[in-house]
Specification:
This protein is of the alpha+beta class. It is about 40% helix and about 20% strand. The protein has one domain (about 1-40, about 50-90). It starts with a helix and ends with a strand.
Length: about 90
């Protein structure tokens, strides 16, 4: 996807490009909706394999473990840096 994007974007756009990396997360209600609407999903929805994280407004969600987050950030960040060396990664959440 990033390879196709770098091939299609004009050079002028690439000079001031930013990325925001947002990991998959879910709440218990969201899990029920995903399982109902997408019974063959390959998303990891096993709470025991995720980390619980409190949200800003007193609600929580399941996110990847710290090690998985670092692996995702390093891997995707590496691809971004490879295909868009002038781009800035704003944040990873």
């Amino acid at each position: 996807m990033l390879k196709k994007l770098t091939e299609k974007l004009p050079a002028s756009v690439k000079k001031d490009l930013t990325f925001e990396m947002i990991q998959h997360r879910f709440t218990k209600p969201a899990k029920r909706v995903i399982q109902k609407n997408y019974p063959m999903t390959k998303l990891e929805l096993d709470e025991s394999k995720r980390k619980w994280k409190w949200g800003r407004y007193g609600s929580g969600k399941y996110v990847y473990t710290n090690q998985e987050q670092e692996d995702i950030k390093d891997t995707i960040g590496g691809y971004i840096n490879n295909y868009f060396p002038e781009a800035k990664i704003e944040y990873f959440t």
